[in-house]
From TrEMBL:
UniProt-listed Gene3D superfamilies: Homeodomain-like, Tetracycline Repressor, domain 2
Chain ranges of the HTH tetR-type domain: 9-69
Domain of life assignment: Bacteria
Annotated DNA-binding residue span(s): 32-51
InterPro entries: Homeodomain-like_sf, HTH_TetR, Tet_transcr_reg_TetR-rel_C_sf
Transmembrane spans: none
Protein name, UniProt field: TetR/AcrR family transcriptional regulator
Gene Ontology molecular function: any one: DNA binding
Length: 181
């Protein structure tokens, strides 16, 4: 009996979501196809009916990671940019299955990738800036907010001193408070 027409789409989506989570957590080099397929609870053979290579999967998983992270960060925000920013800057405190922002966590991984992957990352970043711009209504302010938020989260992920990490994130949140909320 053949699979229904939705099955292939659902399988592909499971692979992309599993890859998004793993790539953000470990980077491109820290994830193998077997890891992704195990996370998706599928066989390795199923991978090749959806993707030609790990690079193609990475290219497609970055926007998925961004979309999932956005949905999680928006939860409970009531359209308040300051609440969203607070959630963004404190995303590392989420549950283990929380999708962290790929823009911040893959920042050093992406620069070593091919131009197509870098272009995808740039599109996700541009979408993030546009999203912020819809709250602050000034492109330069949106860029400054994005750079501060992404940089703070990326830097916080490298720190081992929890009090320094908390101080950094609080300072960035206070320094970029949006008056429009």
């Amino acid at each position: 009996m053949p699979w229904d027409t939705n099955h292939k789409h659902q399988s592909r989506q499971r692979i992309l979501e599993a890859a998004a989570q793993l790539f953000v957590a470990r980077g491109f080099d820290g994830v193998g196809i077997d890891d992704v397929m195990q996370q998706a609870n599928m066989t390795r053979g199923a991978f090749y009916s959806h993707f030609k290579s790990k690079s193609e999967l990475y290219h497609e998983a970055i926007p998925v990671a961004g979309f999932i992270a956005k949905e999680q960060l928006e939860a409970g925000c009531s359209n308040s940019f300051n609440v969203l920013k607070h959630n963004y800057l404190n995303q590392h405190k989420g549950a283990d299955d929380t999708q962290l922002c790929p823009i911040a966590l893959l920042i050093s991984d992406i620069r070593h990738r091919d131009p197509a992957i870098r272009e995808t990352y740039e599109k996700v970043f541009a979408g993030f800036v546009e999203y912020i711009n819809s709250h602050v209504n000034e492109r330069s302010a949106a860029l400054a907010q994005a750079a501060t938020m992404i940089g703070a989260v990326a830097l916080a992920q490298t720190l081992t001193d929890e009090s320094l990490k908390a101080e950094l994130l609080a300072a960035c949140e206070a320094a970029t408070r949006c008056e429009q909320d």
